[in-house]
Amino acid sequence: MAQGKSDKSALKFIVILGIVSLCADATYEGARSITGAYLGVLGASGFVVGLVAGLGELIGYCFRLFIGYLSDQTRKYWRITTIGYALNTAVVPLLALAGTWQIAALLMIGERTGKAIRTPPRDVLLSHAALRLGGGFGFGLHEALDQIGAVMGPLAVAAVVYYQGGYQGGFAILLVPAVVGMIVLLIGQRIYPNPRDFEHQTSELTGKGLPRKFWIYLGAVGLMAAGFADFPLIAYHFQTKAVATGNTIPLLYALAMGVDGIAALVFGRLFDHFGISILIVAAVVSSLFAPLVFLSNINLALLGIVLWGIGMGAQESILKAAVAAMVPIEKRGFAFGIFNTGYGLSWFLGSALMGILYDRSINALVVFSIIIQLVAVPILVLVNRHVSRP
Question: What is the pLDDT averaged over residues 313-326?
């Protein structure tokens, strides 16, 4: 009976963190649905859009290395998470006041920095409850709730942009979910001050360093990240090539986020049954998004957006669950930090290169995206062979 109550509490905890992420995603994903187009309106080039998107990810993900280590050393997971969420969401409404692309770029980077601060300690908190219920399911449920916000935010922004005819109002409305999310976070912290109690450490994972399979896995994930175009570049393409209008671009992003949430639940469950092998399937499927998004009309571009969402959902549910299962509990924050840093560095290099390729040859961008994602497949096969061995 106690076991059932504990499982129920773990589920409630995941839902609370999911609601926090829902509000946060409504805030910053709502903004990200139009930042690419917004930068274009403010005079930025395709290279600048790709560079800003990649640089924000680079700074944010690299900072996670330090934050992950700091979290494990201080054990102040809740405090650091709260600081991160506050910064992550507070700067978004300020985009309404940005008069140049340079100021908008700095605010976008500030938002990514806030996300960097809160992600490693938040993932550690979440992992305790997720591993009790099933890592794939736990992280997948959190991602699904997260993506509800990622759908609501762009839809709200699309409505405001449509009725007001400008981007500033779209950014300003995002103050509402930012405030609600912080309130729920503080309540959750009071109810569950020690989430580590959810997890029974039955694993025999030991050692001074992180296991070899972790590093191999990180290499494969880095290739996937490098070939996965960030949405601001996709939005820039849709606007500059008249594939979609400024009013419909946020709706396309909302579609992608909805698919992301569903895919996270599905692939999370599949991961609990089949392990990392299911990520291989996701990598192959998502590699097809680039030609559909960048070389097609709006009808095929919609299919490309769906495949892009599937890839994001699979990555968000599987990648973190696999890391949590690979490393000892006392090194989990640092492992998440290293993992996110490697992922972000790859994302930055890939985004910057795709921004350059876009200005020179869209066909070259598409070829690069497909090939580098498929190169990750044989490495994932190797990881799958090592996953049952220390």
Answer: 82
Reported confidence tier of residue 364, pLDDT bands at 50, 70, 90: very high
Answer whether 251's CB lies under 8 Å from 154's CB.
yes
Please indicate whether residue 48 or residue 13 has the higher confidence score (pLDDT). Answer: 13
Amino acid at 282: A
CA dist 140 and 156 (Å) reads 24
| Structure confidence at residue 201 (pLDDT) | 55
CB neighbours of residue 283 within 10 Å: 25
pLDDT-based confidence at residue 209 (cuts at 50, 70, 90):
low
| Residue for token pair 């996300």 | 115
180 φ/ψ angles, rounded to the nearest 5 degrees: -60, -40
Nearest-5° Cα angle at 263, 258 to 264: 100
Q: What structural domains and CATH numbers belong to the chain?
A: 2-192+209-386 (1.20.1250.20)
Chain segment 219-256, per-residue pLDDT in tens? 999 999 899 888 878 888 887 887 777 677 878 877 88
User: Do residues 152 and 26 touch, judged by C-beta distance below 8 A?
Assistant: yes
Nearest to 7 by CA among 124, 130, 133, 125: 133
Q: Is the pLDDT of residue 269 over 70?
A: yes
pLDDT of residue 320: 82
Q: Which residues of 139-172 are buried (b: 16+ CB within 10 A; e: fewer)?
A: bbbbbbbbbbbbbbbbbbbbbbbeeeeebeebbb
Percent of the chain with pLDDT over 90: 20
